[in-house]
Amino acid sequence: MLAKNMYNFEEIPNAVEPVVNELNNIIKDFLNIDSDEKLEASICALETIDSTIESPDDPKQFAVNLIADAIEKYENNLPELQAFETLAAALDPAISTLRVLMTQHNLKNRNLKSIINVNDSAMSMILNGKRELTRKHIEKLSNHFKIDPALFFDKI
């Protein structure tokens, strides 16, 4: 009840409306993104405004947040991103981790098979998701690359 006594909440909508309308007139073209061209323009607007922000409580941060939300909404609805997220969700985290390690360390199957001590066929089956990494394999890989074994498991 203290807040009700300290502020006149009924005046807020009328006080805010002209400010919000002014802001909307300035950035509205960057909020309704429906093409890659508008996406690029919105990113440029966001970067331009963001480069002038001097502190976290700068009022321009509000406009940056609005534009960033519009960009995120557009990008989240892109078919290629949705397809990627569907594919990524279906991937075995152990195989994904293994492939990232191979890429980062520029390894071939033969390098990896010597680390976990398996033959060519077993290595191929593991990488193709037809055979799972064993606890022993994960221990060897974790020790070799000095990484947390949890990277090979689903996030709970």
Automatic annotation (TrEMBL):
Positions of the HTH cro/C1-type domain: 116-152
Transmembrane segments: none
InterPro entries from the UniProt entry: Antitox_HigA, Cro/C1-type_HTH, Lambda_DNA-bd_dom_sf
Phylogenetic classification of the source organism: unclassified sequences, metagenomes, ecological metagenomes
MF (Gene Ontology): core promoter sequence-specific DNA binding
Full protein name: HTH cro/C1-type domain-containing protein
GO biological process terms, semicolon-separated: regulation of DNA-templated transcription
Organism: hydrothermal vent metagenome
